[in-house]
Amino acid sequence: MLLLLRRAAARAGVPLLRAGPGSPGNAGLSRSEPRARRGRGGEEEEEEDEGCYQLYPGHIPTSPLQKALLAAGSAVMALYDPYRHDMVAVLGETTGCLALPNLRDKMKHHPEGYRILQERPRICLSTLDMSRLRELPDGSLGREYVRFLEDNKVSPDTRMPAKFVDDEELAYVIQRYREVHDMMHTLLGMPTNMLGEVVVKWFEAVQTGLPMCVLGAAFGPVRLSARKLQVLATELVPWAIRSGRNASCILNVYYEQRWEQPVESLREEIGIFPPPAVCV
């Protein structure tokens, strides 16, 4: 178990403390020491490690204890620096064991969501025709999505692939959530500054139930000024919560087939209320 924990943490970029040479159970053995000193138990651990199969490309099998350690470490780092997208991604995967199956079930019971699960579309530069989207009319989803990317200097290729979700279908669900995150900014009319990110996290927390979104919504405001906190509390959070409750599941929209649809029309279809007239 210790060997498995060290390997998963190392691959995830999370450092672990190593016990000293005088610790019980030979816990201080380094990876460079002869394997013979590990005895029969070490061979069994190695066999156990080899028995953890990858469920999809990039998958890192982890135990519940490893997930707990990764969740704790990534939560601390994500709260310290909310723009550490790698830590936010690890936190989402290691704490979404209840929310992700619920989201998958919603997709399976919706015609458009079910088709998305079957076809597995991806939103990245290799699948997007950016030139065509730029030529769409102002106000259309495709044109406003590209405008959001360019105005905020972000790329759809920055979304990290899933690693720690121990189910291939659920791994796609969280990948899809990540790739439509910028679509949520577009539909909600929110920029990528801290205030805009907090508002989107409130909406997503209500929509998805992902603990990572809840933590971002709850602790993100600590970095805001008093004026922005007032706007957030009186205008933006109530609107985000009402919209999140009223809206249908955001993962049940095949956005790639809605590029020509006006943003206002799609908001109305999903159930998102018009954004408040405040400066974000």
TrEMBL record:
<comment type="similarity">
    <text>Belongs to the COQ4 family.</text>
</comment>
<dbReference type="GO" id="GO:0120539">
    <property type="term" value="F:4-hydroxy-3-methoxy-5-polyprenylbenzoate decarboxylase activity"/>
</dbReference>
<comment type="pathway">
    <text>Cofactor biosynthesis; ubiquinone biosynthesis.</text>
</comment>
<keyword id="KW-0862">Zinc</keyword>
<feature type="binding site">
    <location>
        <position position="197"/>
    </location>
    <ligand>
        <name>Zn(2+)</name>
    </ligand>
</feature>
<feature type="region of interest" description="Disordered">
    <location>
        <begin position="16"/>
        <end position="50"/>
    </location>
</feature>
<keyword id="KW-0479">Metal-binding</keyword>
<dbReference type="GO" id="GO:0008270">
    <property type="term" value="F:zinc ion binding"/>
</dbReference>
<keyword id="KW-0496">Mitochondrion</keyword>
<dbReference type="GO" id="GO:0110142">
    <property type="term" value="C:ubiquinone biosynthesis complex"/>
</dbReference>
<feature type="binding site">
    <location>
        <position position="181"/>
    </location>
    <ligand>
        <name>Zn(2+)</name>
    </ligand>
</feature>
<feature type="compositionally biased region" description="Basic and acidic residues">
    <location>
        <begin position="32"/>
        <end position="42"/>
    </location>
</feature>
<comment type="function">
    <text>Lyase that catalyzes the C1-decarboxylation of 4-hydroxy-3-methoxy-5-(all-trans-polyprenyl)benzoic acid into 2-methoxy-6-(all-trans-polyprenyl)phenol during ubiquinone biosynthesis.</text>
</comment>
<comment type="subunit">
    <text>Component of a multi-subunit COQ enzyme complex, composed of at least COQ3, COQ4, COQ5, COQ6, COQ7 and COQ9.</text>
</comment>
<keyword id="KW-0472">Membrane</keyword>
<dbReference type="InterPro" id="IPR007715">
    <property type="entry name" value="Coq4"/>
</dbReference>
<dbReference type="GO" id="GO:0031314">
    <property type="term" value="C:extrinsic component of mitochondrial inner membrane"/>
</dbReference>
<keyword id="KW-0831">Ubiquinone biosynthesis</keyword>
<keyword id="KW-0456">Lyase</keyword>
<feature type="binding site">
    <location>
        <position position="182"/>
    </location>
    <ligand>
        <name>Zn(2+)</name>
    </ligand>
</feature>
<feature type="binding site">
    <location>
        <position position="185"/>
    </location>
    <ligand>
        <name>Zn(2+)</name>
    </ligand>
</feature>
<protein>
    <recommendedName>
        <fullName>Ubiquinone biosynthesis protein COQ4 homolog, mitochondrial</fullName>
        <ecNumber>4.1.1.130</ecNumber>
    </recommendedName>
</protein>
<keyword id="KW-0999">Mitochondrion inner membrane</keyword>
<dbReference type="InterPro" id="IPR027540">
    <property type="entry name" value="Coq4_euk"/>
</dbReference>
<dbReference type="Pfam" id="PF05019">
    <property type="entry name" value="Coq4"/>
</dbReference>
